[in-house]
Each structure stands twice: as C-alpha cells, then as structure tokens.
Amino acid sequence: MTLQKAIPNPITASDLLAKGACKSEVDRFGKVFPKGAALSLRSALKAARNDFDIDWFAIHFLSAATWDDYKKARAPAWDAYVKTIAPDWDACEEARATAFDTYKKARAKALWEVIHE
C-alpha cells in the first residue's frame, strides 16, 4: 500500500490547525510529537496510545475513497469491540438509567423545597 499523496509527511501542528483542529489538541500533539508525526504505523500507534482521535484525522486528511476503505478496514475491529462490551454496556445503561431517574426525582424534590420555603 502506498501513502496517499495529498497527506503531508510528517504531519505537523500547523497541518492540524489548517484542518480546524482545536488548539488544546494541537498543543497536546506538539508535546507528544514535537517534530511532527511521520506517516507510519509507529506514529499511528503512538497517537492511539495517547488518545488522539484517529477518526478525526481520517475524516480531515483522507480522500473520500480512502475514507471508505478505512471504514471497511476498521469495521471488524469495531464489531469485535461492540461484541466484547455488549454485556457490560447493557448493565451500565441500566445502572445509569436508574441513577439518573433517582437524580431527576431528587432535583424535582429540591426545586419543590426551595419554592415552598
């Protein structure tokens, strides 16, 4: 596979700013990649380890055709992730719903109490 020619190599903070990245993420990028990030698997993995949004990069730097290829390539990993977290997700959503319901009732009670003081 060859690199997409339109993507600068290395990616720099200026490249990210030109694509509309927020300043806080660009600043963080500069700390993690002070000389820019080479277009390499190593840099991509480093970006992932540092919680950079790989999809943001893909949306802003890939051509439409390459974006479609990327979505197809990442689909099996996403499907495996969803399958793995599904049981925990359901329990989490149930707990969240119960907790939020309790919060809504407490909020209503607090409002009632301050109105009727």
Secondary structure: number of strands: 0
Q: Please, how many helices?
A: 5
Approximate helicity band? over 70%
Cα end-to-end separation: 71 Å
Main beta-sheet annotation = none
Segments where pLDDT lies below 50 for 5+ residues? none
Q: Mean pLDDT, nearest integer?
A: 89
**Beta-sheet strand percentage?**
under 5%
Structural class: mainly alpha
- What is the overall shape? elongated
**Whole-number count of domains:** 2
**Rounded radius of gyration (Å):** 22 Å
What is the H/E string? HHHHH
Brief descriptors of the model:
117 residues; mainly alpha; 5 helices; 73% helix
Secondary-structure map:
Elements: H1 13-18, H2 23-32, H3 41-49, H4 54-61, H5 64-115
Report on this structure.
There is one protein chain. The protein has 117 residues and is mostly helical. The protein has two domains: 1-62, no CATH class; 64-117. 73% of the residues lie in helices and 0% in strands. It has five helices and no strands. It has helices at residues 13-18, 23-32, 41-49, 54-61, 64-115. The longest helix is centred in the last third of the chain and has 52 residues, at 64-115. The radius of gyration is 22 Å and the shape is elongated.
Give a short overview.
The chain is mainly alpha-helical and 117 residues long.
